[in-house]
Amino acid sequence: MDSWFYRPDALAKTYREWIRSAAQVDDRLVQVLRQARRGEFVYGEKSEKLSALRSMCEDYRLPLAWSDPATTIPIPCELVHMGTGPSCHWHALTRLIKAFKFALAMYLPLQVLLQLRQPSRAAMLGASKAALRSSMFLASFISLFYYGVCLCRTQLGPRIFPSKFVSPMMWEQGLCVRSGCLLCGWSILIESKRRRQEIALFVAPRAATTFLPRQYDSKVGPHAPDSRILLLRPISTFGVRGLCSQSASPYSLPSRMRIRDA
User: Does the model's pTM come out above 0.70?
Assistant: First the structure.
């Protein structure tokens, strides 16, 4: 998730688009976070590059003063909530519901299709339970991420770490996103032990490509794939085959998420 915000080119395009559709985040908010990371948005200073923040205030009918980091420190979480109101807890709940609907619409048909080879009442019931469980996993992942961002920015973060140690700007420059990443990861415990292993096989190669080079240096050879990535490909291929071959799988992956060679 940290790479999706700050180094999106490190992820495959189809994977980035899937995360974007699942997260249902305003692109302008992502833009503002990237501006803060680059130093174009600094609390206590005027900036002419925050048109995205101003347009968000206008669209969500919030005070335009909130778009001025020179006078508003920190930017209220209500702007981050994107129209759901001032409560961070309510925003997390609405995210949970929206993400659950999104996930269920994807996982349930896939699970049912897997059972059509040998349909039975028990198989369909198991497929429904598996889809519900996996949908709750994904919904919790998304909801906890947003909740983690709010907790560190305005709820718990400033109380645990006074501004003289961790300034509001430090939260905006990446700590809030990383706090969300830390919290949302615990949602994996909703899945069964076997499913956690399968998900790890699916995610690990993608995580590795965010910090391992995909190509050799040009002095070695143009466009030659990195040997470490070659070592990861058998693992990723095994992970996807395992997911697709087990009919009792709690959730299956859409075809656009399958591993493709970089």
Answer: yes
